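Job type: complex structure
Entries:
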Amino acid sequence: MSGLSRSKSPMGALVGVAILAVGAILPFFLSRYQIGLATQIMIFGMLAMSIDILVGFTGRTSLGHGAIFGASTYVVLYCVTQAGLSPYLGVVLGIATATALAAIFALLAVRTNGVYFLLLTLALGMIVWGICLRWTQVTGGENGLRGDIRPKALADYKDFYWFILALAALVTFGIRRFVQSPFGLTLRGIRDSDSRMRSLGYNVPLHLFIGFTMSGFFAGVAGAFYAFFNNFVSPSTVALTQSVESLLMAIIGGVGTLYGSFIGASALIALQNLVSSHTERWQSVLGITFTLIMIFAPEGIVGKFRALRAKYASKH
Amino acid sequence: MSLFQLLNGLTFAALLFVVASGFTLIFGLLRIVNLAHGALYLFGGYVGFTIATKLGSFTLGIMGAMAAVAVMGFALNEGLLRFVRGFELRQVLLSLGVAFVLNDMSLVIWGGDSFTVPIPEELMGGFRVFGTFYPKYRLFVLLMGVLIFIGLWVLINKTRLGALIRAGVDDAEMVEAAGINIQRVFLMTFLLGSALAGMGGVMGGAFLSLYPSADSEILVFSLAIVIIGGRGSLIGVGVGSLMVGLLNTLGQVMFPELAYFVIFGPMAAILAFRPMGLFGKAV
Amino acid sequence: MDRRQFLQTTAAGLAAAGTGLQPLRALAQGEPIRVGLMAPLTGVIASGGKEMVEGTQFWFEKINYQIAGRKVELIIEDDASNPDTALQKARRLVEQNNVHFLTGNLLANTGLAVANYVKGTGTPYFIPIIAADELTQRGRIPNVIRTAGYSGSAFPRPLADWALKQGYKRIATISQDYTFGHEQCGGFSQVFTEGGGTIVQQFWHPLNTADFSPYLGQIADLKIDAIFVMETGADATRFTQQFNSFGLKGKIPLLGAMNMTDQSVIRTMGPEVEGIISAAHFAEGSDSPATKEFVEAYTKKYEKIPSLYGFSMYSGMMWVSRAIEKLGGKVEDKAALIDAVLKTELTDSPLGKPVKLDAYGNPIYDVYIRKVTKRPDGKFWNVPVETYPAVSQFWKYDPEAFMKEPAFSRTYQGAKKS
């Protein structure tokens, strides 16, 4: 109950606007590289948020979203470098592909939950990876696809940053509306108790299917613009590590908190940047972080913050 | 399929069985999908390699590896997993974090070169099996796979521990309610499962070599086998290993393009339509 | 300084950094030459990456990290055997560390990703290890140069010629199924079939194939005079061992790509590698004085015989350093640096003979046919048994005509139909 009233409060909207304003003036204070990092944070934040729709609001943990994200990237690059289409059309096709792929995953996964859902999405993600690796005619195999595909209007790195900032705001708004809608409430009901929702007469598989597909749509949006960011895609973009890292971002930030995804993305990318300039042991740091979060803070940063705030509020 | 290719598939399946049997014991009883299982395989293999090269004994290598990995399993279970008991997903993700660390630490300790566990003189060379020349060592692996299957079957079906494990796979709470210290059974199972991974590492390290990505490769196979065969079922993991081993070999020969699909396709299909696997208990 | 001045200065500074110009103060005394080295220090090919760093450091230590009186700052980044990471690191090196040039990377896909990036920034990128043909052929990027490097299809050609001279008529190939493999097998197949030989069958397998037994069975059944094997890293180790354990060693002569018999593979192996023939510009067992000196010094320092990775980075950086010396240490002008490198002939590398670049940024080498031989101390290394002088990436073909033909792939292997 408290979650509902709080998220509809003007505070949330005000915080959002404040963050947006700070984000808009950052390019005047940061170096080119740092702006690039910020752009990356927003793209992966969107991916993490799309995963959060499933993890935080539907109670299903997916290890296949990296593949959905990367599939979109592949389609955009293919459309522009191989098929000679315009980048904008490429983006539309990329998002459509990701959504369709998510729908296929969903059809197979709706009847599972918990660990089995996790493993199924993992397996499906690996199939996508295998296709990207072996279908050399189309995907370029090991070498992937590359080119100079960013539209001229977004060529400048600052312009691209502002565009992505606006996009991230739009996507956040869209996802927020989605999870707060009656449909979203049903998803949360499913998260809390599958069987209760079923006994109340809800068509749980249909809701799961739509929820998964929507989450794939947003992952596809992130993936499509990642193509513009990197001008490059290879099988590592759809690999399991992508799914794992973006899941970790959602978890670090706090599942079910939406904004947490950006915090998680910032934390992970900043940590990676910091650690890798001093040591090659980034993988160990990542592993330790994962382990510690699971033990001490599975609700993530924002989740912990909200829990502490609630505890404080209840004492006063 | 010729005898040669059949033997290839069977010997590979035997190795997979050794590793996957450990995985299914842990998954079946503790309901933990231990994603660090592959890393334990690799770590065990490296330890066994070091012992075997320094002391000149393959057997000591295997024993040392099993011991070392059992210790790691103990540390993992008592030191980390106990904090997230009851939360299936957290356990999985925690084990994934451990896998990352273990893999990286192995890189630090042994470096990135490929190593091959040295095999004893008696196992070098080959036999003529119905006209085909076949390496002795691979036949040894096949034999070991069969022996371990028998050993595990006896353990699970003829001993008290086995009975407790079987009961625990069906209903752990009930076993605890009956007054048994189920945590101890869990621990023993975890140790056994981990030791099997370590043994697999040394055996596999002798003909497939040890290198930084061997852990994720064997993990992927183990996952597929346990899913296809079914949680907590020995027959399941045996059948699953045969299927995956033979499919992998056949796939390489006949459908090289579909290499990954041949393993993940059946795995995904089973998860979607029959999550308990071919021989597993209902989820 | 008030806020407006601060913003203006920052904006100006950012603009300057954004367009790649160094603020004037950088040209003053004390500003080091910044070298950005990327190598796979983690991931599947981590052992090669480590040796790349060693080779680079070995060179710079030899010259005391100074060229033409200017200090050298070497910044090392891990590309994790992964193109996305490589891109990230390249961006960091160029945009944050302001390196004067990039170098390194091992896997072709990481190199291609970085090359695509530097196409836009104009940063000089020197690639002693990345062997993707196209970077110095059809997809030539002017600021990407293979100093002390090689292109994939170049060395198997003299090997094929040598094979024909041995009287081999029927050969099968087995290779990792990716561009590097396609190029090596393509080069071999092209020359072998032109000389009247037949490529009986070609086996392609995914990278990181643990079990070669399915292929070995088929190979044993073919009637062939020899087999050309193109494997790298752990695949090379496994193949050679399994080839031996299935009793094929000694039955079928093994011709390998240079990576098959590289030190990084054979130093942890035993008698199963003896006798394998390969072709390369570098043979650590050569008795040329320059090679011996390099090998001895390297072995002393790193306690292992140098591999291709160590040698190539060492020589590659030597090449660039000689060019920078000619420029008096001025590396800020990218075009001048690239031009100087292209015109530099490397005379004192461990190869012991002068090497220069062709018009496309790829070196022309004398290629050794090498045989893996056992040393008195029991270790194995590659010893030259024959030399093919001045082999270019285009062999004896006309470059323009060659580039009109399709690039090597799984389906196009350059075979001449007889």
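Summary: Chain B has one domain: 3-212. The CA atoms of residues 29 and 113 of chain B lie 36 Å apart.
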